[in-house]
Amino acid sequence: MSKTIAINAGSSSLKWQLYQMPEERVLAKGLIERIGLKDSVSTVKFDDRSESQTLDIKDHTQAVKILLEDLSRFGIITDFSEITGVGHRVVAGGEYFKESALVTDEVLAQVEELALLAPLHNPANAAGIRAFREILPDITSVVVFDTAFHTSMPEVAYRYPLPKKYYEDFKIRKYGAHGTSHQYVAGEAAKVLGKPLEELKLITAHIGNGVSITAVDGGRSVDTSMGFTPLAGPMMGTRTGDIDPAIIPYLMDRDETFKDAAAISNLLNRQSGLLGISGQSSDMRDILAGVESGDHDSTLAYEMFIDRLRKYIGQYVAVMNGVDALIFTAGIGENASDVRASVVEGLTWLGFDIDPDKNVFGAEGIISPEDSRVKVLVIPTDEELVIARDVEKLKQA
Cross-referenced Gene3D superfamilies, in alphabetical order (predicted)? Predict the structure, then answer.
């Protein structure tokens, strides 16, 4: 019997979940926000309770201390020695990491080096790792990479049509993201369908504020929509997704606002997508309300969002030369029945279908008719559980 904690550290946040392993029972979960700012907030949820406190937390090390103090204060643990493993989500593993790894000085240095691929994420992930190493140096510490699941992609899928030296010298290639989510829901879908994962062709659609679609053939990622960075793929909450790259030099030549890479990056990552088209919000709930009220820009944003999703799903049917099931997951995928219905409505010729009586808010499992050629499922994602499982696996290695 042991306790394992899964950590997802952001630049000013620390999300966590504590498990009793190997039972995989969630004992508590929490979120520390506004790290490094005044009025930081730490929230702990356990036993149908939610407790929050506001205080100033200067860095991730202090955040970890507060997390552990809360676990003790609320009687969730009686001694820190009960926590025998910690798993850290890391966004970019580059070509170094094809699977999760035990934390060493070398591994930590590589995580920090790969900040060039994920400048908003890897430095924060590394800060969380350092904080736990300082406070609980003797527990099993594991890094779990968003990109690892996608390292099974063939070269034809991950290479860009650029001169070879840019791949060899600068490692410019498709890496993907949300790998733990795609891996988890593919495995769960196989259980629901009652078939071995190795025999299935699946398309997993992680649709939240960030969106990524993955072709999973025999349990392996063979293509995915996010690329060198999480900007590529379908349109997202505030991100453009795929656009003509010639737009960038065109803007830089004609608008003095865009005289450096930071300004362009801000436009593409933070001002575009649903927010940019609607002019109002990046939240799908607000977009749907705008559609309902007849707002033109919200309606256009919604239709563009659906259009891009359909195109990626359709191309991945071609990549695998067929598909057995489509899985919706993440915030929008799990909760927006209108989005699911709209996506599938444009794919019926390929054998996709949805049962409107099953496609309701809170739906889980198969939502397609029994005679549907391609099954459509809703599977809630659980990235933290994937992290905890990998910690247990490496404990026993």
Answer: 3.30.420.40
Give the residue among 277, 283, 216 at the shortest CA–CA distance from 241: 277
**CA distance linking residue 327 with residue 319, whole number of Å:** 17
**Which residues sit in the known binding site for Mg(2+)?**
8, 383
Per-residue pLDDT band at 160 (split at 50, 70, 90) = very high
Mean residue pLDDT of the chain comes to 92
146, 295, 324, 382: which one is catalytic? 146
CA of 124: how far to CAs of 197, 203, 242, 269, in Å?
34, 30, 26, 18
pLDDT of residue 11: 65
Is 307 tagged catalytic?
Answer: no
Residues at the annotated binding site for substrate? Answer: 89
Query: How would you class 97 by CB atoms within 10 Å of its CB: exposed for 0-12, middle for 13-18, buried for 19 or more?
Result: buried
Instruction: Please tell me the distance from the alpha carbon of residue 7 to that of residue 9, in angstroms, as a whole number.
Output: 6
Which pLDDT tens digit goes with each residue over 173-217?
A: 999 999 999 999 999 999 999 999 999 999 999 999 889 999 999
Using only the alpha carbons of the chain, give its radius of gyration.
21
Angle at 178 between CA 148 and CA 156, to 5 degrees: 60
Is there a contact between 278 and 301 (Cβ–Cβ < 8 Å)? yes
- Give the three-class secondary structure for 147: coil
